[in-house]
Design a protein that fits this description.
With 135 residues, the chain is of the alpha+beta class. The chain has a single domain, classed as Roll (Nuclear Transport Factor 2, Chain: A), CATH 3.10.450.50. The protein is built from four helices and six strands. A six-stranded mixed β-sheet has the order 2-1-6-5-4-3, covered by helices on one side. The longest helix has 17 residues. The radius of gyration is 14 Å and the shape is globular. 21% of the residues are buried.
Length: 135
Amino acid sequence: MTTQADPTIPLSDATASVPPEAVTAWVERYLQAWRSNSVEDIAALFTEDAQYHESPYSTEWIGRDEIVAGWRGRWAWQAGGWDFEWSVASINGMTAVITGIGHYVELGDFDNSWTISFTDSGRSDHFEMVNTERA
């Protein structure tokens, strides 16, 4: 599977830091992939050997193909309708933290904290989400 790199993230060097606008663009593409459930949209976000972890759930997807398959397996409940309010909490080098609230028609509201590590290709090689259901 061939995916396009994000040209908004420069090649890294010892002092590289992912620009805030590149983080914003990546999150917007993530949300588009969540809306489309397209193999190409999802795959374009991650490196071939990426890891995707979600807690407190047992989501441990290793490799782009497993991420795509796992993501697409959730289509039934996300297709019921959702919205995501978010902001960039911090950037440290090539890692960004996103905080937000996911509103799902089928599941309710969830506080989210994402830690996303980027490569110089503009893709994520490590994605970790803490997903806490609101009472």
